[in-house]
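Ex. 9. Protein: Dipeptidase PepV.
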Amino acid sequence: MTIDWNAEVQSRKDVMLERLMELLKIDSSRDTEHATKDAPLGPGPRKALETMLAFAEKDGFVTKNIDNVAGHIEYGDGEEIFGILGHMDEVPAGEGWETNPFEPVEKNGRIYARGISDDKGPSMAAYLALQIIKELKLPVSKKIRLIFGTDEESEWVGMNRYLEVEKTPDFGFSPDAEFPIINGEKGIASFKIELPQSDGQGDLVLKSFTSGIKENMIPRDATAIVIADDVDVEELKTEFDTFLAENGLTGEFTVDGNELKFFLIGKSSHALEPKAGLNAATFLATFLNTKVASNYLKMIAEQMHLDSRGHKLGINSIDAKMGDLTVTPDLFNYEFGKTNHVIINVRYPQSTNADEIIEKATEALSDFEAKVEIHGHAQVPHYVSGEDPLVKTLLSVYEEHTGEKGEETVIGGGTYGRILDRGVAFGAQFPGRENVMHQANEYMEIDDIINAAVIYAHAIYELAK
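Predicted structure tokens for Dipeptidase PepV:
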């Protein structure tokens, strides 16, 4: 039986894109401030999940909603469960957008919106693939479940709840990364670094320092307020402007009585690619460290700035299969006399672990008397052999439709693929495309969504028949 997968996708793409636009209008970032019993992760994640399941119900699928935090779309019968794991949540929009992030814009063959590439576009492509298999009545020997979480960008509350009440799939993939395949994922953990309160002397005193909106996003901007006593304000402003210009940054310096406000704009990016961003907080701390006597600023400037491999923190590690450990300082909160911490996000290979990272960072920061502890939930490294039939089948389908050689890959990102012993990430970003996940002006090529759906449809059938 020969199936023209491309023709099947093309005949359904208009409805798919219309539905995708509806999904993208929903701000589904985690919002515990407005959480209720019926919306434990906030109204946005719930609405996105319900909208996605409603599409499937209209198309005749069996669906299940788990406590408004996760759900699945099901097709086929069999003892084995083949899972396709996506997510309906997204990171906060943040600043720097040229358009409204929740009013999707189609321009030059792209769709611009928060969540389009991570992960609503790829998830919709996977849904269309499953829809084609159902409508063609293709024979499958496995139960296929397209499973959606609503907290992938934070603590995986939704997916964890799902796995408490539903059987874990035997194998599968997550459409939440890139092609040709991701069969290895580094461990992921965030750590809170807290210093004793010891600042407060000199002509310049740090009153507050804040930056960052999420612990897996390099902060775009940072703000510091400094109390000044008998300083040359104009000279300080000139030095700040010079620093910004020399480092390709922008910012603003304002004065309100004896308070000096420093605002610096860098470039946000996903924590898995530290070199793609310009960390506003570490740049601002580096400038202020030469002016203000503050252990907090000194630690950031001397132990964290421009060191994505963790050498200054003493946590650098590498192995042949997974490569280098990477680290990004993402959340900063200092208020004189009250709070004093930095949260770093670490992506680590199999050659180290969270306990060792705490031990080494604590030692490296001993002069600061820093307390280092795990923050949130940690994920250990994950790897599926390139010889596994799952990996071989997915790569074979990818090669057939792209004409490109498919090779196994390890990334610093974390996907739902790691939930399964035989789980990988498969698309939907194609090689050579700009990675704009978690960034302002996030977009995805429409052709890439269509081509991913073609590959997914063929791959799902090959694995489930």
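Check your answer against this statement. The two ends are 12 Å apart (CA to CA).
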